[in-house]
Amino acid sequence: MESLSYYHEKIDRLGILARKSLLSTARRVRGLKPRGQVLVAGMQRSGTNLVMDLFERSMQTDTYHERDPRAFDDYHMRDRQHIHGLIERSGGEVFVIKALLESQHLRSLLDEFAPAKALWVVRDYRDTVNSLMISFPGFAERIQLIAKDRHACGWRGEGMSDETHALIRKYTHPDINEATAAALKWYYRNILFFEQALDTDPRLRLVSYETLVTQPGEEIERVFQFVGIRYSQGISRWVSPRSIRKRPPPEIEPDVAALCEGLAERFHQRMKETVSTS
Q1: CATH code of the domain containing 189
Q2: How many domains does one find in the chain?
Q3: pLDDT for 29-84, tens place per residue?
């Protein structure tokens, strides 16, 4: 049975969406257009849905989840001209759209939809792997295919560098388990952040899932400030850290775990640099 707070949250969200619809209609009648776009990117099961839900609670945003048929077809962003049309017709002050299966194209998307900013959400690889294995089984089979041909599984291998593909081939073997294969996906989708040189792009901010759920007020306020919208405590009062270390660590092979640890440390250092210069 759901808790009473769950139903209060659902009712509250419906009220927010109703008020936003009225504000959006008023802005369209007045001919007002969004003053900027926000792209939310990263790796599946890393907290991008949480970030989108937080944006959706702001009265200033017009948000498009990857399940929204207006902007997506089978979770893939529709063509760029179609998205430009949505922006033109948007009634929000800021247009927010998920770019999850398109994270490999994030730099070009930032250019295409300028003025735009982006968020790349990062979550601990162990918790991500646990969540991935529940939501999307079949990692061992897919990593075998990608090791042979990086283009074998569609968007999953798009943008993969030769160096990354060499690592996939190195660590993939016939007996690889699901957790290790999922961890390799965490690596090869997140390394795209550095391979696109997004760590030096001022239009993008890294977001730590763990910081987001343990210090929601401070972190969400920083995120909102970065994209230029107002923050209020009511936006984040429902955020909880219950999902951190919810399950035992997955059985990831040591070499692949070390690979993920190294990338996690690169993200950690980049976040420290961002905080020190902000």
Answers
A1: 3.40.50
A2: 1
A3: 566 678 999 999 999 999 999 999 999 999 999 999 999 999 999 999 999 999 99
